[in-house]
Specification:
By secondary structure, the protein is α/β, with parallel strands linked by helices. It has 18 helices and 14 strands. The longest helix has 32 residues, at 196-227. Bound molecules: uridine-5'-diphosphate-xylopyranose.
């Protein structure tokens, strides 16, 4: 919404949320306090806020005044009832639709921005269609493909903008109204229009394909470690095939983020609900592989540290699910930490952007042990050198650029020996670290055998 406001100064954009603290943070004079850390976002908010970009808790007023409403609430995996652990929870979407239906006095375009199961638009349409007050709504699907950490550049230069709508004259008109907004900065050939169901399903499909690529290269990373191949070399070799392409072939300790797991589980659920068991099993394997990758990273740590990590200090560099974000949702670090804490390890975490409260909240949410125990076993430092000091090993969980620039000699000198690094992001330079004396494990190329 900030980018739309910046690119279209003649359009008034109001972002509303029930959460007063969040809205206050979006209105904070100090741009460092915005609730989301995203490179370049602060400048955009600075330019547009107060001009044509507003943040408010007056939801009804904003609905009443709007000609177009984007529903952007979260659609987490259901934690109860039918479809528990798989289906998307559409409670918040439905509440939004009901509020829009209750408040609206004139015709509006309602845009699904949240990622939704295919055919959700029909539910929204049904709710909005039964207001009895004669107001007409057009429902569009406009999924968002931005990735975190690069959100601003992805929005300014999207590969494509996808808009799905009804093929009726009213639907076509609504599609062109939304297309015209994007056309202020996106070339026309990159604005793709489809029917609503294709648009909804394309978003789930894109995320499934991306996650599948990561699981595919991670599956190969294990074969590489066994066979003496190096996954980085394999990725380069296959990525030069123009049919495969070089992106999304970086082996890792496992993908995280708010989308991949949730959307694949949702896809699996949809396939099952159509009775397509083979299709469901096929996509579920992407998640199974991802869980396996985290497990085997932990097992590697335990095995290398002489089969016990009890009372051993393990330093974690990185907690975010990827670099350049403070988002930790589904981050591999959470599961890896949880397993190691089960083994009574002492963990010390450093992440450049994630705060202590978030890290404890992530662990407490799992409910594996009491919050006090999490606090006793895991500490958080504001210096990477303190995190690593007197540790048995360092585990790299996020690919923050700054980790490459550390004084690794100083870290080596401060650690217990043998000092081991478990590089879950294939980020550091094996030769340099081995020369310093480290035992160095890298995902997809293993430990050098002497
Ligand atoms: C993803 C999609 O890319 C985006 O289009 C969609 O809108 C939302 O979901 P995001 O979750 O922000 O975006 O991050 P992404 O860059 O896709 O990375 C997801 C996870 O996969 C991260 O944990 C990342 O570290 C991991 N990953 C990615 C790898 O392990 N290897 C890779 O080669 C690429």
């Amino acid at each position: 919404m900030a980018v739309i406001a910046q690119q279209c100064p003649h359009i008034e954009v109001t972002v509303v949320d029930l959460n007063e603290k969040r809205i206050a943070a979006w209105n904070d004079e100090n741009l460092e306090n915005l609730p989301v850390f995203e490179p370049g976002l602060g400048e955009i908010v600075k330019e547009a806020r107060g001009r044509n970009l507003f943040f408010s808790t007056e939801v009804d007023k904003a609905i009443d005044e709007a000609e177009m409403i984007f529903i952007s609430v979260n659609t987490p995996t259901k934690t109860y009832g039918k479809g528990k652990g798989m289906a998307a929870d559409l409670k918040y979407i439905e509440l939004c639709a009901r509020q829009i239906a209750r408040v609206s006095k004139n015709d509006k375009i309602v845009v699904e921005k949240s990622t939704l199961p295919v055919r959700t638009a029909s539910a929204i349409k049904s709710i909005l269609g039964h207001t009895g007050n004669g107001v007409k709504f057009e429902i569009l699907s406009n999924p968002e493909f931005l990735a975190e950490g690069t959100a601003v550049s992805d929005l300014l230069k999207p590969d494509r903008v996808l808009i799905g709508g009804d093929t009726t004259p009213e639907g076509t008109k609504a599609i062109s109204t939304l297309s015209e907004i994007y056309a202020h900065w996106v070339p026309n050939e990159r604005i793709l229009t489809t029917n609503v169901w294709s648009s909804e399903l394309s978003k789930l499909t894109a995320n499934a394909f991306l996650a599948q690529r990561v699981s595919s290269i991670n599956a190969m990373s294990e074969i590489c470690e066994k066979s003496g191949a190096d996954v980085n070399e394999v990725a380069k070799a296959i990525g030069m095939d123009s049919r495969i392409g070089p992106k999304f072939l970086k082996a890792s300790v496992g993908f995280g983020g708010s989308c991949f797991q949730k959307d694949i589980l949702n896809l699996v659920y949809i396939a099952k609900s159509y009775g397509l068991d083979e299709v469901a099993d096929y996509w579920e394997q992407v998640i199974i592989m991802n869980d396996h990758q985290k497990d085997r990273f932990v097992n590697q740590i335990i095995k290398t540290l002489y089969n016990t990590v009890s009372d051993k200090k393990i330093a974690f560099l990185g907690w975010a699910f990827k670099k350049d974000t403070n988002d930790t949702r589904e981050s591999a670090a959470i599961k890896v930490a949880d397993h190691l804490l089960n083994e009574q390890a002492q963990i010390s975490v450093y992440d450049p952007k994630v705060n202590a409260a978030q890290i404890y909240a992530d662990l407490d949410y799992l409910g594996t042990r009491a919050p006090k125990e999490n606090k006793d076993l895991l500490s958080i430092t504001s210096s990477p050198y303190d995190a690593c000091k007197e540790s048995h090993c360092v585990a790299i969980l996020t690919e923050w650029d700054e980790f490459k620039t550390y004084d690794w000699k100083k870290i080596y000198d401060s650690m217990l020996k043998p000092a081991v690094i478990f590089d879950g992001r294939a980020l550091l330079n094996r030769n340099e670290l081995e020369e310093l004396g480290f035992i160095y494990y890298q995902i997809g190329s293993g430990i050098t055998q002497h």
